[in-house]
Amino acid sequence: MDFPLFHLDVFGNRLLFAGIAITHVLINHALAVGAMPLVTLLEWWGVRTGDARWDRLAHRLLTVFFIVTTTAGALTGVGIWVAASLVNPTAIGSLIRVFFWAWFTEWLVFVGEVGLILAYYLSWRGWGARHKRAHVGLGLTLSAFSWATMAVIVAVLGFQMSTGVWTVRPGFWTALLNPLYLPQLAFRTPFAMITAALVALMLGFWFLRDDRDFRARAVRLISLWALAWTPGWLLGALAYWRALPESAGRNIDIALTSLRWQQWADRMPWLIAGATAAIVVLAAWGAWKPARLPRAALLVPAVLAFWLLGTFERVREFIRKPDVIADYLYANGLRHADYPLLREEGLLRHATYTAARGITNDTRLVAGREMFRLACSRCHTTTGMNGVVTKLTNLYGPGPWDQATIEAYLAGMQNTRPFMPPLPGTGAERSALAAWLISLRAVPAHLDGAQTAGAVVTP
Amino acid sequence: MTPLAVLPLPRDIPLPMPADPALLQALLVVLFLLHILFVNLTVGGSLLALWAEWTGRRRPPFAALAHAIVRTITVNKSLAVVLGVGPLLIINVIYTVFFYSANALTGAAWAMIVPLVTAAFLAAYAHKYSWERLAHRKGLHLALGGLSSLLFLIVPFIFLANINLMLFPERWTQVHGFLSALLLPNALPRYLHFVTASVSVTALFLLFWFTRPGFPLDAELPGFDRPALRRLFYRIALGATSLQLLAGPLVLFTLPRAGWSGFLWIVIGTGVTCALWAIALMARETLRSDGRVGSHYLLIVGLITTTAFCMGYGRHVYRETAVTAHREAMAVRTADYGWAAAAAQWREATGIGPDTTPLGERIFNGTCASCHALDRVLVGPSLQEIAQLYTGNPGGIARWADAPGKKRAGFQQMPPFRLGSEKLLAVAEYMLQLGSGQAPQRLD
Question: Are A70 and B121 a contacting pair at CB < 8 A?
């Protein structure tokens, strides 16, 4: 309520953030954290066997990894800051106050990582070709840096979901020691290694097209790498699942799909198990009888792994709800501690940017709209994705809805929808919001964010 | 003081700073200069490469020069991005409210930074790695270089608009989108200042890079010798730096007076003096004999570095002066609000002004009423119907609510409410009273 609010009313703010963040995680895990040790392994194997084809394959894979990570990878990383500042400034601002030094440290490691990947890739044919052992050492150092950036950031991610910690003693070390940290890291590390192997196999579809003999060797080595990490991956997943706080369990079946298909949640674990099994079977086949593995099969496992990783991130983002920082800040950007005051005196009264404060017959609909902007718009649109009109239509039919019904819903939605925060504000404000929602159904309106409408202050 | 209707006075995030603000500010000045150095080398490199490639259509040595410049961009552009993250983090923490407000007000452009820079980098790679392949389609190749230069030139507008807008809260309510933020005084002069600086910094860097000991000049840049390269890049740097004599004052005098101070003039004055001295030295260098051209290089770089530091520091001094009053007013408001929120929390916790509504009624209104009405089907069946089904059997309602089944086609599945048997029984009894007409329904 202290920032002019950016808002995307068609695709929703969540999609902007999720799109950037998930792209970044896919690139980071598959093409950096897991990819650098794999490329180094291939390079080293080339030195050991004296077969130049390994070196060529490693270099071609690295070219792809280098181009993607230094463009889309790096920029989606910065993009997480950019998007967070737009979508939920209070949340990211609060996290930065507490985790500043963690992020600062991560940044220093990140500077090292970028320097090392530039050095590793750009020296491959010059200095690196003349000093192969040192060059392999450079690859190992780069691998360590890539892993370290992930290890730092996971501390913050685990912390966001650890109930009770923030209010007791927020800080970097508390974050590092939170019960989700090690399980999450134990899960992500092997997952990154495996995904990198699957992406390498996928690229092998093109890079290993002609030389059948070498394709079999390369597929075997890469598959063995993936298999070697599989037990760790499964154990990590189990540890993570068991460490998830109890409150998250309440939301998890909705998280896996979405409310509308809640029933499908029964089937989702089977899809996840199926995708995992398919990956393991294909990797085992590649390790055991690589020559028999059809070339087209190289394309499949990476797609499955991307789907799994995307699902994992989506679930992780969902199960922390209704909070964005456990027990401290709701997803709407208001602190739990703000609620009693806002209930007594009103959300609009305490908002910096609002077109209405008091509620009269003339200002009722404007006040309702401002309530929506302040309390709902971080997650909902009017009529776009995750739009409120659709949500209420699912519940109450095409209408017209009556005022008392919508007000009753708003009063208790946190009980029927445990992933939603309670509505802040007074009864009169709730009533204004209900009136605006009812008018919105009759006459659909678009809600402009601060990026076009600007900021409004009212005395 | 400006009334609230004009000047937005938000509250700050009520959490302590992670370190002494002076330390954070010092880090910001130094790290930002490091970031902007590589941004300058990227933008300037891209522009100079384009110019050299264009010239190279008629004069082959310049084509090789363009290719050599392009190779420096690969490293510089990645360092520009990665070194930007640190200062961005510090800006986020020191100027939280100022910066995020500016971000939101220019949000569409701010979000475009990610795809625009990605596209600029991809275009730069395409330009670099297609050098041989497109050797016979020079037009297309130049277009690729032009595209990446254009993208590199667009992105700084977005950062400048943000960093400028954040200083002037009194303007926040007047801005409607990125373009209107860009048209505020000072944003465009700063842009001119920045692009000119990019060219002059890059020229000085390339002068060293291509004439450094160990650089295979004859193989890489046939047609150039060291003195010729030195004179060429000195001329470029001299021209660009002289343009700053126009751009610099334009920036300074379009700055709102709010942030002017005596100390600022001392800092800026020192920077200008160093710049003038460097200009004089560069002019002399271009006229010197082959054997002596370049001997003042280190002094020139030292002077320009001092200028950059003075300007970077001066800009910080201005910024702090500009936001201080607003920041102090914000701190007062943040503290007041914090007390009020704490008092309300205490009132709620201690039950002053307690909620006298009976438990069952409270839960019903807060949880069940969104789907169950007294006398009609809302989402689930009406209370009257439920009362008939469960007369004298509140435990039946409680068991159902704890683990609902699904009996009726065309109705939505009821979610489970695991509130515990005490609460469930209380609400069930209240529902039976309502449904049988023994109690009136009161919705607040």
Answer: yes
For residue B405, the distance in angstroms to the closest alpha carbon of chain A comes to 13
Contact A6 B104 (CB under 8 A): yes
A·B CB contacts under 8 A? 235
Nearest to B344 by CA among A345, A328, A334: A345
**pLDDT tens for each residue of B188-228:** 999 999 999 999 999 999 999 999 998 999 999 999 999 99
Residue spans per domain, chain B: 21-334, 359-435
Tell me if B378 and A71 make a contact (CB, 8 A cut-off): no
Can you give the pTM of this predicted structure? 0.90
Chunk chain A into consecutive blocks of 10 residues (it has 459) and report each block's average pLDDT, rounded to whole numbers. 93 92 93 97 96 96 97 94 95 90 90 96 93 96 95 79 61 70 91 96 92 94 96 92 69 56 67 92 93 89 91 81 87 94 94 92 94 96 93 88 92 85 95 96 91 90
Residue contact B78–A412, C-beta within 8 A: no
CATH superfamily of B359-435: Cytochrome c-like domain (1.10.760.10)
Which range of residues forms the domain containing residue A364?
336-453
- Residue among B96, B122, B379 whose CB faces A71 most closely: B122
Q: What is the ipTM of this complex?
A: 0.92
**Nearest one of B151, B271, B251 to B192, comparing CA atoms:** B251
Q: Which residues from B are below 8 Å from A341, CB to CB?
A: 340-341, 343-345
Residues 31-70 of B with CB under 8 A from A: none
Q: What are the angstrom distances between the C-alpha of A53 and each of A124, A202, A406? A: 14, 18, 68
Check which CATH number belongs to the domain holding A52 and give it: 1.20.1630
Tell me which long-range contacts A178-182 makes (C-beta under 8 A, separation of at least 24): A179/A243, A179/A245, A180/A240, A180/A243, A180/A244, A180/A245, A181/A154, A181/A155, A182/A239
Looking at the fold, whether A386 and A289 belong to one and the same domain comes out as no
Residues A358 and A283 in one domain: no
Query: Which among A266, A298, A330 is the end of a domain?
Result: A330
